[in-house]
From TrEMBL:
It comes from Ptilorrhoa leucosticta. InterPro entries: Myosin_TH1. Residues 49-219 form the TH1 domain. Pfam families: Myosin_TH1. This is MYO1H protein. One of its GO terms (molecular function) is cytoskeletal motor activity. It comes from the Eukaryota. GO terms for cellular component: myosin complex.
Amino acid sequence: PGFLTQTSEMLRKICMRNLVRKYCRGLTAERKVQLQQKVVTSAVFCGKKEGYLESLSQPFLETRLKENDLNPKVLQLIRGENIKYVTPVIKYDRNGFKARERLLVLTQSSAYVVEVAKIKQKIEYSTLKGISTSNLSDGIVVIHVPEDNKQKGDVILQCEHIFETVTKLCMLANKQSVVKVVKGSLRFRVGSGKEGTMVFTVGPEPQVFKDKTGQLTVV
């Protein structure tokens, strides 16, 4: 009879709402943060960047290095700021593209590129113009900064945990919309009004090098 069909549908909806309510109430604070971050990662990368599907089963860590792993001089320089995330990165010079080991430190208000006991560059989230990465499986991310005297130019980094790092950065900056996943190539600011080009391609093994034309090539 029709009234039983209607009753069955109502009970299905009530049961589903109850299951959702029970699941949500059972979430730990840590699990809730994980899900919130994964939702942002999906919005930014799903269907756009290779390796996204493989990353789904990998939980994000709160941080890759702890605060006490940082040099005391660095901690003193950024005192008063709440450190949220630290991860090792490879930074490529804007001129010559030499690879250098660095740390990326994300606080509540700024991103820092750190060399042992020195802060090499500080990017306040309020001035961050964009975050670019390719559609391939590389870990390159470019942090775009404004063209002013305070900044040397855009920051070119290679991150082992690209999805985690970009998600943390755009969430802390509250600028999810500025993340771009590009194909083929991208332009970055070198400084003093100059620009460089980065080319992304596919090959038998991962490489990052300066080609004959002077461009940074990422394989």
